[in-house]
Amino acid sequence: MTISTPASRAAMPLDGGARNLKELPARRWAALGIDEKLLRCAVLYALLGIGMGLAMAGSHDGTNRGVHVHVNMLGWVSMVLMALAYRQFPRMAHSLLARAHFWLHNLGLPVMAAGIYMVLHQLPHAEPVVAGGSMAVAASFACFALNVWLNAFSPREAA
Ligand code: HEM
Ligand code: HEM
Predict the structure, then answer these.
(1) Measured at the alpha carbon of residue 151, what is the angle toward residues 148 and 155, in degrees to the nearest 5?
(2) Is residue 43 in some structural domain?
(3) Residue 75 lies inside a defined structural domain of this protein
(4) Within 10 A of 152 (CB to CB), how many other CB atoms are there?
(5) What is the pLDDT of residue 9?
């Protein structure tokens, strides 16, 4: 019996029969899979979160810690884990729940981060902003969770 694990699978073939990486065409955003889109978004959140961390460390001012934490943990850590899940379980990537997750996560998180900033700096009208953003992010995780339970399985190879 052969069980296909990620490590035992053949490496992904290069697109379009290209012989080396230089021959690969640049891929348009619209042509990317949800895993690739999430990975690209995640690295942007990582750069933003790390930039904030450096600014906090440099200024010895931790006021924005809550923004830093959630940009890093929801934008980088969670998003990259979700990208890998979509990569591992293609049935999940093709579900409408994946699109709902993608948009709720990427529209909700900037609003949530702005709302946390507003709370931490005691700006007016912070509550509805942070609540709206957080609910959208929570809804995005709910879509992802439902998608896992409905679609996260791979057909096993015949024994
Ligand atoms: C160069 C990169 C980074 C720098 C310079 C940095 C800097 C900091 C600083 C200065 C604090 C403490 C703020 C305070 O309380 O005064 C902090 C907290 C934190 N950072 Fe970062 N950070 C970096 C990257 C990251 C990354 C990549 C993650 C997550 C993957 C992360 C997660 C956290 C968390 C969870 C806390 C809160 C810890 C707690 O609850 O006490 N940081 N960071
Ligand atoms: C919609 C989702 C989420 C909401 C509404 C939320 C909300 C909160 C709140 C209200 C706090 C306390 C802030 C304070 O009193 O200073 C907090 C802290 C924290 N959260 Fe979240 N959270 C969410 C998701 C997450 C996730 C997914 C992670 C990790 C993967 C995470 C990591 C943390 C950490 C490490 C802290 C401590 C930060 C610190 O030391 O200041 N959160 N979160």
Answers:
(1) 125
(2) yes
(3) yes
(4) 14
(5) 52
User: Which carries the bigger pLDDT value, residue 134 or residue 19?
Assistant: 134
Q: Is the CB of 77 under 6 A from ligand 1?
A: yes
Q: Is the CB of 94 under 6 A from ligand 2?
A: no
For residue 38, being part of any structural domain is answered with: yes
* d(C-alpha 139, C-alpha 34), whole Å: 18
Query: What DSSP string describes 62-125?
Result: -TTHHHHHHIIIIIIIHHHHHHHHHHH-HHHHTSHHHHHHHHHHHHHHHHHHHHHHHHHTT-TT
Q: Which domain holds residue 139?
A: 31-151
Number of domains composing the chain: 1
Q: Is residue 103 included in any domain, yes or no?
A: yes
- The verdict on the CB of residue 136 being under 6 Å from ligand 2 is no
Average pLDDT, the chain: 90
pLDDT value at position 4? 53
